[in-house]
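B., you asked whether I could sanity-check this one before it goes into the benchmark set. Here's the sequence:
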Amino acid sequence: MTNTVETKEHLQSNDYHVVPATAKQLSYARQIASAYKKVLPEDIEQDRYALSRWIDDNKPEPLTGRFANYPSSKQVGFAERIARMKRNMVPHECFRDKTAMSRWIDTNR
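And here's what the prediction gave me:
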């Protein structure tokens, strides 16, 4: 019995397992590339997993500092729409803690 080691050439020749990237993935990768003056590798849209690794390596760092724990504007807007529909108010502490805001949204959907 021989020990088989898969080489890069072998993996590239068996492309039955390669799945193309999704439209959302491509859109996000293009946003990153244009915002940070990066170049997408050729033919990366043909491999969802390679594009995912590229996105992970090139996406912006998460916020740090004083406002890192605050909810995003989209999260606040969504919570306010829910509150209007339910004729309710979003608790004030939710505006200072994104985890609390997320919990409030989940319980009031």
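One thing to flag: Residues 1-11 have pLDDT under 50 and may be disordered. Otherwise nothing jumped out at me.
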